[in-house]
Amino acid sequence: MIKLSHIEKTYEGSSGPVMALKGIDLEIKRGEIYGIIGLSGAGKSTLIRCINMLEKPTAGKVIVDGQDLTAMNDSQLRAARKNIGMIFQHFNLLSSATVYENIAFPLKLGGCSKEAIEKKVQPLLQLVGLNDKQHQYPAQLSGGQKQRVGIARALASDPKVLLCDEATSALDPQTTKAILELIKDINQKLQLTVVVITHEMQVIKEICDKVAVIEHGVIAEKGTVLEVFTNPQQPITKEFISVLISNELPSAFRGAEIYPTAVPGSHLLVRLTFIGDSADDPVIAGLIRGFDIEVSILFGNLDHIKLTPYGRMIIGISGEQPEIDKALEYLKSRDLRIEVIGYVTRHGHIAD
Amino acid sequence: MSQDMVTLLIKSLGETIYMVTVSMVIASVIGIPLGVLLVTTAKNQILECIGFNRVLASVVNAVRSVPFIILMVAIIPVTRLIVGTSIGTMAAMVPLTIAAIPFIGRQVETSLKEVDAGVVEAAMAMGATPMQIIWNVLLPEAISGIIAQLTTVVIGLVGSSAMAGAIGGGGLGDLAIRYGYQRFRADVMLATVIVLIILVQVVQFAGNYVAKRLNKK
């Protein structure tokens, strides 16, 4: 649906040219929700604006729905943009127009008749749940309601692609959730391809199928959200994920010395990660029944990445060394990811 | 004050209103598009044309830097060419209009600059043409501010029109100079000043009211 090949963008800064995008390749399939995450200044806003050519790339090709936008003249481009809806962090609604007029705006630009506009706008008001607000002005709405207007407006011209530029960054957590639900809903109902720009991993986790992590104008890492979440490669990715999933040890062990081999009174800490169906596997029961060891659960949580269950647990294993080794072999044979942290003593020091 | 004086006062007020209204209308017809051009042809704007923008800005500054009383005298040949005379109400309207155009241009520019760039960007993302952006985004979004700014221009014009009295332009200024000043009629002078004060108050009040009604922010 969207194909970006080797996109470069250079700005003329006051101290010489600044390269905001340094060769971005990205392919987004029809019906996908694709997340692009990066810190501010990473180039993600520039990148999303290249998709509808609000920013013209210095080099590279932008192909949306089979059309090469980079090869178009201004009027062809304006026609092509009607296929690409966009919503913004600060909503960018016309303050002088009512909710109804705002949603009708792209249709009015397209020269639709009053009746055609009415026919189109009413279902959209319904879709975003703002029927009772249609005659109000944006200033009278809450942030979440404003973004709903933005979404309805973006959908008015029946686009095939929806670009979301930090669409939830100005909203509180509850409203963010509701707006993300709405975007997910629209994606499914209308088979819309959605591109989401954000600096919040929560947003990616909530709705995206795939993610690209962008840093200093290049894509540091990309893949399915599940892959990237459970097995991040780059430091920047790990940092984003750590906001949601702490890799730190439980507080009782923080600061404690970790030994590579067993010491008296110590037990072995192991981090287990369950993804999808493996979350149903009774691993702990298997450990206790199969081996002469003691297992204590020190930390655990279960979460979802979009719809896939995703669990993490830290367990402590104590017992005779051969049994511990066998237990580890058992864990490795199961369909889950394990990480051996090391041996710690219960109170942080070696027992006498 | 005699009945004649009151009649004269009313006639002068009528002339002032007439001069200001006509000049304002003509100047707005030219000045508002001028303001739009000043904004839209600037760097990174929808009709970017930096060279043109610089020339336009210089011309505006040049006209604005000439004091009205000098402008009035300096363009007498032009006035004569347009209205056939250099004295009277008609003649006063030419310099009033010429002085008001760049003033309006700058004021409109200020209002348009306050329009959120994000809204313009949103319209571009929807495939709006530059003309559609001007008509459907910039002007409606700025209308309240433009009205407030134009109110200031009208009040400025009332002041300038009084100055036109100095060259026999008619209106309240003319009355004040001929009767109040040259014939030492303090009562006429006072009456003129009071009428001017009331006129300005009414204009300001009306402008504020309309601007407020149009402001949906």
UniProtKB/TrEMBL annotation, chain A:
Limits of the ABC transporter domain: 2-241
A GO molecular function held by the record: ATP hydrolysis activity
One matching Pfam family: NIL
InterPro entries: AAA+_ATPase (IPR003593), ABC_transporter-like_ATP-bd (IPR003439), ABC_transporter-like_CS (IPR017871), ACT-like_dom_sf (IPR045865), MetN_ABC (IPR041701), MetN_ABC_transporter-like (IPR050086), NIL_domain (IPR018449), P-loop_NTPase (IPR027417)
GO terms under cellular component: plasma membrane
CDD domains: ABC_MetN_methionine_transporter (cd03258)
One GO term (biological process): amino acid transport
UniProt keyword terms in alphabetical order: Amino-acid transport, ATP-binding, Cell membrane, Membrane, Nucleotide-binding, Translocase, Transport
Superkingdom, natural source: Bacteria
Family (UniProt): Belongs to the ABC transporter superfamily.
PANTHER family referenced in this protein's UniProt entry, alphabetically: AMINO ACID IMPORT ATP-BINDING PROTEIN, METHIONINE IMPORT ATP-BINDING PROTEIN METN
Protein's name according to its UniProt entry: D-methionine transport system ATP-binding protein
Organism per entry: Propionispira arboris
Organism lineage: Bacteria, Bacillati, Bacillota, Negativicutes, Selenomonadales
UniProtKB/TrEMBL annotation, chain B:
Ranges of residues in domain ABC transmembrane type-1: 13-207
GO biological process, one term: D-methionine transmembrane transport
Keywords of the record: Cell membrane, Membrane, Transmembrane, Transmembrane helix, Transport
Highest taxon in the source lineage: Bacteria
InterPro entries from the UniProt entry: AA_ABC_Transporter_Permease (IPR051322), MetI-like (IPR000515), MetI-like_sf (IPR035906)
One Pfam family linked to the record: BPD_transp_1
CDD domains (UniProt xref): TM_PBP2 (cd06261)
GO CC, alphabetical: plasma membrane
SUPFAM superfamilies assigned to the protein according to its UniProt record, in alphabetical order: MetI-like
TM helices/strands, residue ranges: 16-39, 51-76, 82-105, 188-211
Membrane-related topology note: Multi-pass membrane protein
UniProt subcellular location: Cell membrane
Protein family (similarity comment): Belongs to the binding-protein-dependent transport system permease family. CysTW subfamily.
Protein name: D-methionine transport system permease protein
Annotated organism of origin: Propionispira arboris
Classification lineage: Bacteria, Bacillati, Bacillota, Negativicutes, Selenomonadales
